[in-house]
Fold this protein.
Amino acid sequence: MSEAFAAVARDAVPDRVEGPWREFWRAYAQSRGAMLGLGLTIALILIAIFAGVIAPHPPYEQYREFTLTPPAWQAGGRAQFILGTDPVGRDILSRLIYGTRLSLLIGLISVALSLSLGIVLGLLAGYVRGWVQTTIMRLMDVMLALPSLLLAIAVVAILGPGLINAMYAIAIVLLPHYVRLTRAAVIAEVRKEYVQSSKIAGAGAMRLMFSTILPNCVAPLIVQATLGFSSAILDAAALGFLGLGAQPPTPEWGSMLADALEFIQRASWVVTFPGLAILVTVLAFNLMGDGLRDALDPKLKR
Amino acid sequence: MFAFILRRAALIVPTFIGVTLLAFALIHLIPGDPVENLSGERGMDPARRERLLHEFGLDRALPLQYAEYIAQVVKGDLGTSLTTHEPVLSEFLTLFPATIELALFAMVLAVALGLPAGILAALKRNTVADYAVMGVSLTGYSMPIFWWALLLILFFSVQLGWTPVSGRIAVEYDVPAATGFMLVDTLRTGDWDAFRSALSHLILPSIALGTIPLAVIARMTRSAMLEVLREDYVRTARAKGLPRWQVILIHALRNALIPVITVIGLQVGLLLSGAILTETIFSWPGVGNWLIHGVQSRDYPVVQGGILLIATIVISVNLIVDLLYGVVNPRIRHA
């Protein structure tokens, strides 16, 4: 009897309290989709880092005698060009591998730019309030009134086409989301006791904003940043496709598609694989973002 | 009710002013001034440049120029295209029906497939059907639609030869443009072959454009239905012994539709964004295609006017959705 009682008591008290990281990981790992997204993302990052080692050919090398070679498994394909070659004889697989580097870099740079500016503006709007808030938020409303691709096109029309300008354009497009999110989180946090007590303890505005409030608003920002990666990659590819982003011969997936457009009827592989690369990458970040949201959202936590 | 409408409508005024500022800034932020862009490669002698700057009013103070710009916009004068020398507004209005036709068709497709798919996924939660719907919709949501459009062309036009590759109607038909909507115009002439041709040109672009809204609607319907199915009144309806379809369609769906309708309204921006890509690929003669040509040929009046008009449409539609939402849901109206 007492033994059974002791066993129940032992089970009721965990050996040690789970840390926040473990708790988060357990919630995240529950979703198969989220794990698939994470796995794909890690694979893509590795491909990007080791592009020079993995790619069978240099991305700009034109094998003039092998233009428009079909993929290896099709009639007329060659083992040395697994996914075939493009109209000027460049190896498609190698260009896709180097393109991973570009796409992830575009995502990283535009999200980092947008996120840091968005956090600063959002903190200001939420903490200072008054006309500062009104000005910032009205500006964000204007940016949200334009469909995202249209805003990106407007920015590129001003700055001129190119990869770097496309990144700026995408950073601007993503900005309102981070500003709104940070502001909302700040307004929710600022009333709480821990903020009030550190204010009474004499903490300055900078300290309050960046080291007291900000760390407590991080969860939704992480989710939004992950989803921002996927829209950045998608929009960059769309701009590249429209000839407003990366310019040929850069092995960017969107501009690879645009380059190959006229050969679509003769050689479908020049179009199929770059698009597939975009889809898989965007899907990976979306799956990860969904998983992060479910794992970090306290409302859904059991 | 009237006060609610006024309050909501007043909110969009600052946004609209902001959009005009953005459109105005566009011309002033581009490298080189419009006169320089007109002069081309050879350049222009300074005296003529001065005269042209004066003629365009570009030598005056910026606030004054902005005020003049607004005065012109209010009068409906959005400038003249540098390439076609046509007024920007009338070009836009001629091409806009083509975009609406495409967007409407895409939306009908997205709603007709997205709603049932979302309902099915919610009712069969955690089954193969649910996973299939959610998997497909997540893929659709992540789809680069310019690539998706190419795949559709490759399969249905090139391989099977079922649908035309591009354009709005086959060249042999000469349909007088009465409404600008090709389906309506062909029906008015009573030419069935022309109607069929117009319809077959519309199918692939609509699928391409409707895919992302379809995915969004399916996801939203599923989560709204799941939420509603947990409610007490649904349980009560079931307990009363009502037939299952009646509980689902009348008690659950009607309430689940409120957030779904909002989401549908908010797809307008997405549709216009998507139209830019879809129209480019299918050579669809709409405003998206026109705008991209404007950007590529540095036709700044077109870019400026196009952005202003599209933003105005998106703002207005969002306002209408907002107002309808208030009409449907009194809690919003009286908040």
Notes: Chain B touches chain A at residues 14-15, 18-19, 21-22, 26, 29-31, 138-139, 141-144, 146-148, 150-151, 153-154, 158, 269-270, 272-274, 276-277, 280, 291-292, 295-296, 300, 303, 307, 310-311, 314-315, 318 (CB under 8 Å). Residues 244-282 of chain B form the longest helix (39 residues). Chain B is about 75% helix and 0% strand. The mean pLDDT of chain B is 85.
